[in-house]
Amino acid sequence: MPAFENSLSEPVVAPGVPASPTLGAQIDVVTKFLRRRYVTILICLLLALPVGALYFFITPTTYTASATMMIESRKGPMEPLLGASLPDPAWIDSQIHVLRSTSIAAYVVKQLRLADDAEFIRSGVSPFERLLGRFGGGPSEPKTEAERTAAAIGVVLNGLDVRRVGGSYLMRIDFRSENSEQAVKITNAVIDGYIFDGLNAKYQANRRASDWLQERLLSLREQAAAAERAVLEFKTKNNIVAAGGALINEKELTAMSDKLTAARAQVSDLQVRLERIEAVRKTYQQDKLPSATDQNVSEAMTNPIIGGLRSKYLDFMSREADWSARYGKNHAAVANLRNQIRDVRKSILDELGRIEETQKSELEIVKRQQDESEKQVAALISQSGETNQARVALFSLEAAAQSYRRLYDNFLARHTESVQQQTFPVTDARAVSSAAAIKTGPKPLQVWLVTALAGGMLGAGLGVFRELMDRGFRTRDQVRSVLATDCLALIPLLTDGRRLRFLSRRQSLAMEPIRNAQVALSERGPTRSIHSGSKVMRTIVDSPSSPYAEAVRSLKLTVELNAQSNAGNVIGLTSCLPSEGKSTLSAAMASLIAQGGARVLLVDCDVRNPSLSRALAPKASAGFLDVVAGEVGLEDAIWSDATTGIAFLPAGRCVPRASEILACDKAKLLFDTLKSKYDYVLVDLAPLAAGVDVRATSGLIDSYILVIEWGTTKIDAVQYALRHAPGVHANIVGAVLNKVDMAAMGRYDSHGSDYYYYGQSRSASSVN
After folding, report:
1. How far is CA 195 from CA 166, 188, 192, 425, in A?
2. What is the pLDDT of residues 688-703, one digit of tens each?
């Protein structure tokens, strides 16, 4: 069951068909659509033409005045302060909105006194309101000054168009009006209004900036004075005095540092001298000659006494060495020289002691000076640290004072410039070309093209809507793709009142005397004759080459092939809904097959609405239901037609629970008997939507043919009916599109358009 439902809900695509349609296929689809819906499109097109004529009638002649304006970038003195910069695309776009602003429109209205021009105010009324005004309707006239001004501003804004010329700074201003001279004046006035608005905006900005600068100058002056006072008070409080660009304590610290350095060097030199003098003394005390270093120290001494004594000492030492070698160490003269040498050495030592004491005294004095200098330097360093800490705060105060001073000077210069600029305004726009007016509307060619296009689009839209709402079967491919079965034939619809249907109830009553005579004659004869007054019989017998007969003949071929393939010779014809022509088609098929010499039995199993029995055997007293019930014999219930050679088994009397009778074993036995006696058994079944009658015949019927009324029966209805009759769907050999309008069929199936047209012509001529 689920697989069957999918086969009906999803269209079946034949193998070999491309997934996407080609260009030719798309063109063919459009062509077929136009052939089907050209009447709708033409009607909408014709209806649109009066609309275009009405537009011409109610639309006055309009003129458009155009002028060009350039927006230039001129930097004024105040622009750096106000944050102005070079124009960018966003700024240019904003100027377009300024040109279309209410303030510019109000300037134009005021300068040209458009609020007092009633004709100008009425020009803003739409064509529809104009049409209403011709019949006494439309909006009321503005009465007050404010209403007239607002209406005039609205007309100016509605007719104004501003566009940028390429990527330049040029602006094109267009104004559309019914008066060419007025359009030129308004266009030029728009440029003047923009220039005036720019000048006024700059003046107001400069004035506001000047006022603000003046207030800031007073505030900055007070702030700068307060900052200067704070610097002076801080210097006085922290004893910060400067001379020659530097602080006094810094100069004192430098001088004292130099003095301390000199004292330390002098102390070091004196200490070295004392150490060498001590070494020399020890040398002389040991009766030794001083070393070269000690001699150098001695020579470095500028004492004349030590110099003389040293000379004597050296002379005596030389003589003592010479005499000791010459006379011997114990000689009296040598001993005398030794005594003299000892005396000189003692004198030298005494003098060295005196010098040493002098150097020590000087060293003590220099050390005291060093200590005093160190104390003074430490005090100055401490004082300098405090001064440096104070200078950090002083630097901040001086920086603030300088900032206020520079800011005050800058604002003072800006204020002077702003005051001067107020008397020298500069505009950023100028007119490049004056306005000139041309006639722009209405344009006949454009209006008619738009009208035709709108009418065509409306017609195409209605056509597409009708296509979407058309849910009936139209072509063979549609039957094959939707129902997954073949379309066996297209049964044409006979026009001019010659439709293939049985006589209506009124016609049946009119033919009642003729039928009674035929029935009386048949009752006197050995057989019961079928009433053959229907158009079906006449069409099949009298016009065997008509398209209708040819279509039925294709069904006959399908039935014969089905019988030859051992699929059974019991063929059931059913439909989704009543009045789709299945009974007519059953009689036509039986007549055509019987003309070929085959034994054919037509059985009416539409027990709820036996229209076939009412048409072919209206006086039949027994039929299929009676034979199954065993009340009459088969031979007593069968009717025949001598002209076509078919046998007909009516439905019989209507009984309750007819579907149970169709599904019983006696009905199965009856159909087995009919199979053995006849070559073909055609069964007219009830519609699928009637209930379970058709499903009850699944054990009796070998194969089914589904009759679908062309363009009328909905696809959803057929799918729903087959979905709830799986036994019928499994044995369907094909479907038939009945009552086909062959002339219209060519608009749905372009492959057989010539054949359908030829077939329709033949059908009309054959019936006539």
Report:
1. 22, 11, 5, 11
2. 886 788 888 888 888 8
Contact 456/702 with Cβ under 8 angstroms?
Answer: no
DSSP 511: T
The residue written with tokens 């909006």 in the block is 139
pLDDT, mean over the chain: 77
Please name every residue paired with 436 in a beta bridge, in sequence order, or none if there are none.
66
- What is d(CA 317, CA 337) in angstroms, rounded to the nearest whole number? 8
Pull the structure tokens for residue 679.
């070559």
Peptide bond preceding 618 in cis form (omega within 30 of 0): no
Tokens for 597, please give them: 């010499």
Q: Could you tell me the pTM of the whole model?
A: 0.52
Give CA angle at 65 (59, 67), nearest 5°. Answer: 155
Contact between 676 and 683 (Cβ < 8 Å): no
How far, in Å, are 39, 300, 309, 318, 359 from residue 281 at the CA level? 151, 15, 14, 21, 14
- Name 429's bridge partners: 71
Hey, how many other C-beta atoms are within 10 angstroms of the C-beta on 718?
24
Contact 102, 153 (CB under 8 A): yes
- Which residue type is seen at 77? P
pLDDT tens by residue, 94-138? 889 999 999 999 999 999 999 998 888 888 666 666 555 555 555
Cα dihedral 134, 139, 140, 143 sign: negative
Q: Maximum CA pair distance of the chain?
A: 219
Residues 6+ apart with CB under 8 A from 698: 727, 728, 731
Task: List the 62-71 sheet strands across, edge first.
Answer: 160-164, 170-177, 62-71, 429-441
Report the distance separating Cα 757 and Cα 763, nearest Å: 10
Q: Helices in 328-437 by DSSP H: which ranges?
A: 332-422
Residues 6+ apart with CB under 8 A from 592: 540, 549, 552, 553, 556
Q: Are the CB atoms for 162 and 171 separated by under 8 Å?
A: yes
